[in-house]
Amino acid sequence: MTSSAAQPTVSALLARAAQLSLATGVAVFGIKLAGYVLTGSVGLLSDALESTVNVAAALLLMLTLRFSARPADDEHPYGHAKAEYLSSFSEGLLIGIAGVLIIQTSVLRLLHPKPVEASALGLGLTVVASVINLLVGLHLSRQGRQLHSPALLADGQHVLSDVWSSGLVLAGVLLAIATGWNWLDPLIGLLVALLVLRVGWRVLRGAVGGLLDERLSGEEIARLREAIDRHRAAFLEVHDLRTRRAGRDTFVDFHLILPSDMPLHQAHDICDKIEDDLMEALPGLGVTIHIEPEYLAHSGTHPRVTDIRMH
């Protein structure tokens, strides 16, 4: 019989995913660099340069996940999980730098074109690297969603973007070899740069949104509404419902209007039941309920008014 203690913790799963990302990044960079050496393709070189960002991002991911796993303390009563957004933001910047480097390399090759060598081995290595990235990227993205880790999800999206950019590079190399139009190779390099910059922008935007406490998704808020609404017979009104996400943690707070003559112990029991249902709807949720007397109801109709206002 397997005990629950033997199951890996969320922190352990995240650490394994980060280690896999780092090992994959190093291996794929070596494979793509070998492909460039064999073909002389600036497209493959740009692809290899972008892979260096994967390695740097994986290192940063490991450090950030280790820090974010620290428990709450006196100076950080809500924990350290929000540090993951700093990792995502830094990764977005690194992706942007890689895009700029690719543009620089591609423009220089456009001005001074060189023939691309037809190396089946070099092209084959690119395909192998892409397959590795595809499998690992899908795994990291899935783990990031399941474990509610924005840093891991961003890293998975970054790795998957490497797959699409590698596909463009491979197409450019094959076209340049087939047609003899050497300018096609650096042109594809520019297209790769635009794709990389687009991914970098998306990662940056997601990180900034987390740092600025964006609300939960509409689907998650609907689940919270449903959980609260199960107790509609016990309260008069709910308003000023607010949600936010901090890394792997989520929080909700709202005002709960109760009858003025309700005993304190009964009000406490109602709050406990609502909290239980909310945490069942979104495991790990932090709940804060502010109780108010009925004369503060916004709707002005009694009794048993339910006016769930979202912010």
Describe this structure in words.
The protein has 311 residues and is mostly helical. It has 2 domains: 4-211, Up-down Bundle (Alpha-lytic protease prodomain-like); 218-296, 2-Layer Sandwich (Alpha-Beta Plaits), CATH 3.30.70. It is 65% helix and 9% strand. The protein has 8 helices and 3 strands. It has a 3-stranded mixed beta sheet, with helices on one face. α3 packs antiparallel against α6 (184-211) and α5 packs antiparallel against α6. The longest helix is centred in the first third of the chain and has 30 residues, at 10-39. It is elongated and about 85 Å long. The two termini are 47 Å apart.
Outline:
This protein is mainly α and 311 residues long. The protein is built from eight helices and three strands; from the N terminus they run αααααααββαβ. The protein has two domains: 208 residues, Alpha-lytic protease prodomain-like, CATH 1.20.1510; 79 residues, 2-Layer Sandwich (Alpha-Beta Plaits).
CATH class category of the largest domain: Mainly Alpha
- Uncertain regions: pLDDT < 50 for 5+ in a row? 1-5, 301-311
Mean pLDDT: 81
Order of helices and strands: HHHHHHHEEHE
CATH topology of the largest domain: Alpha-lytic protease prodomain-like
The CATH homologous superfamily of the largest domain is named Cation efflux protein transmembrane domain
Task: For this entry, give a set of tags.
311 residues, mainly alpha, Alpha-lytic protease prodomain-like, Alpha-Beta Plaits, 2 domains, three-stranded mixed sheet, 3 strands, disordered N terminus, disordered C terminus
